[in-house]
Amino acid sequence: MTMVAALQMASGPQVQANLMEAARLIKEAAGRGAKLMVLPETFAMMGVHETDRVTIAEPYGSGPIQSFISQQAKKYGVWIVGGTIPIQSGNPARPFAASILYDAEGKAAARYDKIHLFDVTLSESEEIYTESDTTTPGHTPVIVDTPFGKLGMSVCYDLRFPELYRRLSEKGAQILLIPSAFTDVTGKAHWEPLLRARAIENLCYVIAPGQGGYHVNGRTTYGHSMIVDYWGRVRGERDKGAGVVLAELDLEALEQTRKTFPVLSHRCPSENRR
């Protein structure tokens, strides 16, 4: 059994203030026994303008945001996922949205660049998002072995693309990480059903921290950070505001369920699909 944590925030435009809040939540989660914790998407900055994230982009392997997560992981001897961090790409105006996993020694153990970018218009609220204007997409699914099991990494809008999670589960993922910043409109409609679906169809645990509250840029995020088990049961949830969601993961029970309910082995091979 491993205690894990989803850390919910309501980040603003000031990086230092956000990092202080993240440090508070990390300390709380570590004090309550969490060994793996996941911060939400854009935890270090929810800017007034989308272009603000470009100004804090860091080269991979150095910079204040990466150093902060590394130091916190080492300080508490825990594994931490920095939800998303703007990491420089070949285009100065469009950094990657990188989710970086740090081990208990503070070393970067894995990096996933968000593949699916949020370019949508929400007719209900008349909100328009063009994430691709300020973000370079990634292309490669990432799975990583850890002391807690095999982690499949993803971010927010990826949640709507089940084929990504099929690829992760085919590679052996047991725990799906989904740091997010769902809008209030889409969150109310789809957040919980999508999380539970990804857990059920892949017989995986899901750790899904979100942004949850009102932001200086006028945006309201849905919150409802959750940890969902492989049977689709919500093991922990927080509705709004900063806080910690904790749950214990039992991989022995997960693997036993996969043996007695072998839906994953019943999938048709990709080459035989029509």
Descriptive notes:
Pfam families: CN_hydrolase (PF00795). GO terms for molecular function: hydrolase activity. Keywords: Hydrolase. It is a single chain. The strands form four sheets. A six-stranded mixed sheet has the order 5-4-3-2-1-16. Strand 14 and strand 15 form a beta hairpin. The protein has one domain: Nitrilase/N-carbamoyl-D-aminoacid amidohydrolase (4-Layer Sandwich). The chain contains six helices and 16 strands. The chain is α/β, with parallel strands linked by helices. It is globular. Helix 1 runs parallel beside helix 3.
Give the arrangement of secondary structure elements:
Elements: E1 2-8, H1 15-31, E2 36-38, H2 52-55, H3 64-76, E3 79-87, E4 96-102, E5 108-113, E6 119-122, E7 127-130, E8 142-146, E9 149-153, H4 162-170, E10 175-177, H5 184-202, E11 205-208, E12 212-214, E13 220-222, E14 225-228, E15 234-238, E16 243-249, H6 251-260
